[in-house]
Design a protein that fits this description.
The structure is a single chain. The chain folds into 2 domains: 4-91, Phosphorylase Kinase, domain 1; 96-226, Transferase(Phosphotransferase) domain 1 (Transferase(Phosphotransferase), domain 1), CATH 1.10.510.10. Helix 3 runs antiparallel to helix 4 and helix 4 crosses helix 5. Helix content is 42%, strand content 18%. The chain contains 6 helices and 10 strands, in the order H-E-E-E-H-E-E-E-H-E-E-E-E-H-H-H. The chain has a 5-stranded antiparallel β-sheet. Strands 6-8-9 form a 3-stranded antiparallel β-sheet. A hairpin with a 2-residue loop joins strand 4 (80-85) and strand 5 (88-91). The chain has helices spanning 9-14, 50-70, 109-124, 163-187, 194-205, 207-227, and strands at 16-21, 29-35, 38-44, 80-85, 88-91, 96-98, 127-128, 138-141, 146-148, 155-156. The structure holds adenosine-5'-diphosphate and magnesium ion. Adenosine-5'-diphosphate binds next to strand 1 and strand 3.
């Protein structure tokens, strides 16, 4: 029988057993694919609006694949199984649930410790995630271990010494750590330490973060407006 790695995109889609996210608009389909006991997650932009599919899809697939390759071997990161084509990639399935679906109080002190360790590990491998504020990107594995997914927005540590990119990289690493504090604030505020409270307060205040967020939002809104048809799905938060 053909293993998942030999199937075409159409064949993979035909073996989808669960939809994590329905694509369309600017978004990919994120599907759980199963065949002969083998499981994997397919992230597929082929159903996004035409301009997004042509421009943003291939870029996002390449970016995410590059991050996953650089993180190969890092615990808490799904393995890249293969880039299927310019629209889609296939990665290891992490059984469990996303932090967004965990009810308040459901995340424990050891979980947060391990999540900080995971964030440090990403940075040791030279990758800042940059979108851990989105709770859907943090998974609680069936074994209780934290996992990070969705590396489309990542920022890599440059190979050559470049003060500007090094500075930006450090800022994004700090933003990843603050995202853990934010998750704690929303799920278990009693666990926040003084240092985390201060980091959250600083985060609200820095003009850099505010400007970056403003630019990010504007670019997203303008590109969605330009590249997608009105009234389509997939414009929700991630
Ligand atoms: N490797 C994976 N294993 C298990 N679930 C995953 C995996 N990748 C994504 N998911 C699920 O799919 C959801 C959407 O995936 P994500 O990569 O965040 O897509 P988007 O770019 O649309 O935010 C995640 O919130 C998570 O629930
Ligand atoms: Mg996401």
């Amino acid at each position: 029988m053909t293993p998942l790695r030999d199937l075409s995109l159409e064949q993979l889609r035909a073996h989808a057993v669960k939809t994590f996210r329905r694509g369309g608009g600017s978004r990919p389909d994120v599907l759980l694919v199963r065949l002969n006991g083998e499981q994997a997650v397919l992230k597929d932009y082929s159903q996004a609006d035409p301009w997004f599919r042509r421009l943003v899809g291939p870029l996002s697939v390449r970016r995410e694949a590059r991050a996953l390759k650089q993180l190969a071997g890092a615990r808490g990161v799904p393995r890249l199984l293969r880039v299927v084509n310019r629209d889609a990639l296939l990665m290891e399935y992490i059984p469990g649930t996303s932090a967004r679906e965990v009810p308040p109080g459901g995340l424990t002190p050891p979980f947060f410790e391990r999540l900080y360790r995971l964030v440090d590990r990403l940075h040791e491998f030279g990758v800042a995630h940059c979108d851990l504020r989105s709770e859907g990107n943090i998974l609680v594995g069936a074994d209780g271990e934290p996992h990070a997914v969705d590396f489309t927005a990542h920022f890599r540590r440059g190979r050559r010494w470049n003060p500007l990119s090094r500075w930006m990289y450090e800022k994004f690493c700090e933003a990843d750590r603050v995202a853990v504090a934010r998750l704690k604030k929303s799920h278990a505020p009693d666990l926040l330490t003084d240092a985390e409270r201060q980091a959250l307060a600083r985060d609200r205040k820095t003009w850099l973060e505010r400007t970056a967020r403003f630019i990010g939002k504007s670019v997203r809104h303008i590109s969605r407006w330009l590249l997608t048809r009105p009234g389509k799905s997939g414009r929700g938060r991630d």
